[in-house]
Amino acid sequence: MFGYTFQWNQALARLPKMLDGAVVTMEVAVLSMLIGIAFAILLTLLRLSGSRPLRAIATGWVEIARNTPALFQIYMAHFGVASFGIHFSPFISLLIGITFNNAGYLAENFRGALKAIPDTQTRAGRSLGMSQLQAFRYIILPQMLRISFLPMTNQMVWAVLMTSLGVTVGMNSDLYGVTQDLNALTFRTFELFAIAGVIFYIITKAITLSARLIAARLFRY
Amino acid sequence: MFDTALTTADLIFLAKGAGMTILVTAISVAIGTALGIAFGVIRVQFGAALTAPLTFVLDIFRSVPLLIQLVLANAFLGMVLKLQLSGFFVACMVLSLYTSAYCAEIVRGGIDAVPATTRRAARSLGVSWGQDMRYIVLPLATRVALPSWIGLALGVMKDSALVYVVQVTELLKSTQILITRLQEPLFLLMIGGAFYFLISFPLARFGGYLEKRWSND
């Protein structure tokens, strides 16, 4: 019909390799998310702090992460820092790039969530003898994470999609990198990338679905 | 540290890349928004069940990496259909559809934010569907949707950095080409990054301002 012979068998024979790649993609995404959340909480604390320079650093991080392409951030983590004689492996560069991006976006989400939590709660905690940090840790933080659960799910999906950018810094063990290598080997571009696309689709759907189940269980009342 | 081999010709080369980024973004956002408004209105008007196929297709654009969408579209149009299309055309086409998928969500959210009672009141006063859309829904929905839409347009500009994969030399690719030649990655990347930042940051702030201003009343 198209004057083009689809050869799905050739591509499907490589499925196990691509699934291995999908595992690496998930590893990067989950790690970048966990470290990203930790940094985002730190950034949120810095932005709440009284110190001007600390606030400026946190705001700078957030604004750069949100206003430049993720690809640029990954380039910076790979080629940019190489100017200082620091050479990261593609895996680490990709992880740093995505983590930087995640932390910036999540910190902004956390700030939005904080607005929904009344100041009086911190003061109530303080008057019960908690320190500033204790009040944040035991009263504000749990509510903040809870309110931003949905944005965090979206960011997780973004993190998975962003792993495909690793190929630009020479990453070849993630799903996109593996597909690219297989494409160079077999030249079944359409078939291979269609399968990769389906795998990505399944991963993102699995994330949103499981997040919904977790949310239903965690936030019952 | 401040020595650089960057020449005026290189700067013009970067400016051309920046121009390409803006051109691809402008075309994609314009077409994508028009399509997105149509898709959004269709989804609200015909209900979730009837438009499930549309929702599914649009969802694919949001669940598969843009890089793969570009490679797939290029392979399908070039290798399967054997069409001789420029990379620029493929890039604009994919980015437009990508934009429309997100825009449809924003439009739907905007229309849903208009109270059904307000619309019914209008209709019961003899206002037609078209007039209701034009004079009731449009002004109210715009207040909700415009800040998100600005965010989307800026997101598309940042995502347009990926069209290098279909041989379109936009800003980040131009930067990358110069890095290969001049071996000054940090300096060149900072120029490229600053360009994105200087466009994105003020507009993002403006979007935030509109959101704050319009959410009070």
Automatic annotation (TrEMBL), chain A:
Residue ranges occupied by any ABC transmembrane type-1 domain in the UniProt entry: 18-211
Domain of life: Bacteria
Cell compartment(s), UniProt: Cell inner membrane; Cell membrane
Protein name: Amino acid ABC transporter permease
Transmembrane annotation, as ranges: 22-46, 156-173, 193-215
One Pfam family, short name: BPD_transp_1
PANTHER family to which the protein is assigned, alphabetical: L-CYSTINE TRANSPORT SYSTEM PERMEASE PROTEIN TCYL (PTHR30614:SF0), MEMBRANE COMPONENT OF AMINO ACID ABC TRANSPORTER (PTHR30614)
Family as reported in the entry's similarity comment: Belongs to the binding-protein-dependent transport system permease family. HisMQ subfamily.
Keywords: Amino-acid transport, Cell membrane, Membrane, Transmembrane, Transmembrane helix, Transport
Membrane topology recorded in Swiss-Prot or TrEMBL: Multi-pass membrane protein
InterPro entries: AA_ABC_transptr_permease_3TM, ArtM/GltK/GlnP/TcyL/YhdX-like, MetI-like, MetI-like_sf
Automatic annotation (TrEMBL), chain B:
Transmembrane segments: 20-42, 54-77, 83-104, 144-166, 186-204
Superkingdom of origin organism: Bacteria
Protein topology in the membrane: Multi-pass membrane protein
InterPro entries in the record: AA_ABC_transptr_permease_3TM (IPR010065), ArtM/GltK/GlnP/TcyL/YhdX-like (IPR043429), MetI-like (IPR000515), MetI-like_sf (IPR035906)
Primary site of residence: membrane
Localisation per UniProt entry: Cell inner membrane; Cell membrane
Keyword Secreted attributed: no
Matching SUPFAM superfamilies: MetI-like
Pfam families for this protein: BPD_transp_1
Gene3D superfamilies attached to this UniProt entry: MetI-like (1.10.3720.10)
Keyword terms, alphabetized: Amino-acid transport, Cell membrane, Membrane, Transmembrane, Transmembrane helix, Transport
Domain ABC transmembrane type-1 intervals: 18-207
Family recorded in the similarity comment: Belongs to the binding-protein-dependent transport system permease family. HisMQ subfamily.
Protein name from the UniProt record: Amino acid ABC transporter permease
Species for this entry: Rhodobacter flavimaris
